[in-house]
Amino acid sequence: MSIKEFVQKFYKSDALIDSEILKTYLHPEVILEWNSSKGFIQMDYDSILEMANDLSRAYVRSKVRISHIISEDDLVSVRYSHFVKTIENPREEMLLAHFSTIWQIKDDKLYRGYQMSQFS
């Protein structure tokens, strides 16, 4: 599997709201540098898993729609929109945010991430 296919598989899975699935994709030394609407956030393995656990408490379903994905060497750049369904209203899909992320892959895992997000 190419690294581009690996990243696509990651985003098509429920990893963003299921920490057990997420563990299979993360390198133990993963670092995510995220420029969000709340400012700069740096996350490590444990804090990324904690975020997935938090999301799973609020959302029953997560869907990512990728609009662009490009790979070169050990890097994959992906632009996507993240949609969720809430526990209160599981029939309605809600846009969480738009993201642009560059992932560095190491040992067939997500190793370094550089991400920007914007609410719609």
From TrEMBL:
InterPro entries tied to this protein: NTF2-like_dom_sf (IPR032710)
Top-rank lineage group of the source organism: Bacteria
SUPFAM superfamilies for this protein: NTF2-like (SSF54427)
Protein name: Nuclear transport factor 2 family protein
